[in-house]
């Protein structure tokens, strides 16, 4: 066992860890700037993140050194335990109006839904790799979706829409990687597109034509093709009902994305202040600790959701560009490790982790720039959030573990 661990440490792709540490350094650099004007609470945020970073390195080593066959053997048990852990907050008092955290009587809280991300990926990878699955059948998609939907529903009820959606993100890429037919994956995604397109007449018309063409080219049985087409059209007609089911603050986020002037001091405030911070930084930034939007507290949730805006204001567009390049290199390296892997379980796990990182980086960056509605998703390694930082370093450990050939 000791020799095996030595080999694992010798052959592991350390470039993954180096990128993670560089990004974490940028995060601490930015958080320290935020904390310098935040008084006791600001310093507390910085110190908490530092504590979680140390714990994250320990968990990283554990994820790197634990044998893959042990993870494969016990992951379903771990999956059951995390479902129970995600339910536990419902039996405690709400924190910030949600049931997301488990409290241990300490200033530090634990968010089990963050751990549900990587555990769900491993459970999906085990199921898809354990059997000689006939991926040509659409029926084979049912169990993988059930594996992801169970934690999705629980987390959605907390409520935490952002984390719930992230849990579902790896399903389609992992199914595609496992050999599922693209048409079957299209069938799964089509209802979502139909509902979104229905809010605009021209978009829905174009989608209806495109849907007919794709179904026609795929040549399913006549009755299935007709059912698929008109079923999606019917779902589009239900879009107003779905819109009315959204909570007022969710509707406001969508409306103010389209036209921020509708509510500049309300739902659009975050987007406006974020854009202002990004624009004021220019190419090189106003200087560390010199951001006015940041230190005058105009920029909301600056330590987590909008930390990119702080980076842009104080360190400039060049730093944001370097950061995005690092994330791109990280995701491409994960993809290459998945391509090179000879183990189906490892390859699927790597694709799932890469999908999670890509989703977080895209949503957080696009939200900061006002390209999509505001949704509380942190930026990997950089945003404040202890449980999420632990998950990120567990991801790094798993990447280096599963990306190393035995």
Outline of this structure?
This protein is mainly alpha-helical.
Structure write-up:
By secondary structure, the chain is mainly alpha-helical. It is built from 18 helices and two strands. The protein has helices at residues 2-11, 14-36, 39-65, 68-87, 112-130, 142-156, 161-168, 171-178, 182-197, 201-218, 222-237, 239-245, 248-258, 269-281, 292-295, 307-340, 344-368, 386-402; strands spanning 102-103, 109-110. It has a two-stranded antiparallel sheet with strand order 1-2. The longest helix has 34 residues, at 307-340. It is globular and about 65 Å long.
What portion of residues is helical? over 70%
Record the strand order, biggest sheet. Answer: 1-2
Please indicate the percent range of residues in DSSP E strands (runs of 2 or more).
under 5%
Between the first and last Cα atoms, what is the distance in angstroms? Answer: 12 Å
Helices, by number, come to 18
| Uncertain segments | none
CA-based shape: globular
What pattern of helices and strands is seen along the backbone?
A: HHHHEEHHHHHHHHHHHHHH
How are the SSEs placed, and which strands pair?
Layout: H1 2-11, H2 14-36, H3 39-65, H4 68-87, E1 102-103, E2 109-110, H5 112-130, H6 142-156, H7 161-168, H8 171-178, H9 182-197, H10 201-218, H11 222-237, H12 239-245, H13 248-258, H14 269-281, H15 292-295, H16 307-340, H17 344-368, H18 386-402
Antiparallel strand pairs: 1-2
Task: Using brief descriptors, characterize the structure shown.
two-stranded antiparallel sheet, about 0% strand, mainly alpha, about 400 residues, 18 helices, 2 strands, single chain
């Amino acid at each position: 066992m000791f020799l095996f661990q030595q080999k694992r440490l010798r052959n592991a792709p350390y470039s993954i860890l180096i990128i993670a540490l560089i990004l974490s350094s940028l995060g601490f650099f930015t958080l320290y700037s935020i904390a310098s004007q935040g008084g006791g609470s600001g310093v507390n945020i910085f110190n908490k993140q530092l504590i979680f970073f140390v714990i994250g390195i320990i968990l990283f080593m554990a994820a790197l050194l634990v044998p893959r066959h042990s993870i494969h053997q016990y992951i379903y048990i771990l999956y059951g335990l995390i479902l129970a852990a995600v339910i536990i907050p419902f039996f405690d008092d709400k924190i910030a109006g949600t049931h997301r955290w488990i409290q241990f009587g300490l200033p530090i809280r634990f968010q089990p839904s963050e751990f549900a991300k990587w555990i769900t990926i491993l459970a999906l990878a085990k199921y898809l790799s354990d059997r000689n699955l006939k991926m040509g059948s659409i029926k084979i998609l049912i169990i993988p979706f059930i594996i992801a939907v169970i934690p999705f529903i629980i987390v959605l009820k907390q409520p935490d829409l952002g984390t719930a959606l992230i849990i579902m993100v790896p399903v389609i890429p992992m199914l595609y990687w496992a050999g599922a037919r693209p048409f079957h994956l299209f069938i799964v995604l089509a209802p979502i597109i139909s509902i979104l397109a229905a809010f605009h007449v021209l978009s829905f018309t174009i989608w209806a034509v495109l849907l007919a063409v794709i179904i026609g080219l795929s040549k399913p049985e006549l009755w299935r093709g007709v059912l698929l087409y008109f079923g999606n059209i019917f779902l589009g007609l239900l879009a107003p009902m779905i819109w009315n089911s959204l909570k007022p603050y969710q509707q406001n986020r969508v409306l103010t994305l389209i036209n921020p002037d509708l509510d500049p001091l309300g739902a659009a405030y975050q987007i406006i202040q974020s854009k202002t911070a990004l624009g004021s930084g220019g190419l090189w930034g106003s200087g560390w600790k010199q951001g006015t939007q940041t230190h005058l507290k105009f920029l909301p949730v600056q330590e987590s959701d909008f930390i990119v805006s702080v980076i842009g204001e104080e360190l400039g567009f060049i730093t944001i560009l370097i950061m995005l390049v690092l994330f791109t290199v990280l995701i491409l390296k994960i993809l290459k490790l998945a391509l090179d892997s000879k183990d189906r379980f490892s390859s699927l796990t790597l694709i799932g982790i890469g999908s999670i990182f890509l989703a977080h980086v895209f949503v957080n960056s696009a939200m900061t720039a006002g390209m999509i509605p505001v949704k509380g998703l942190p930026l990997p390694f950089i945003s404040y959030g202890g449980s999420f930082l632990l998950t990120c370093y567990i991801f790094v450990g798993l990447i280096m573990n599963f990306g190393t050939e035995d």
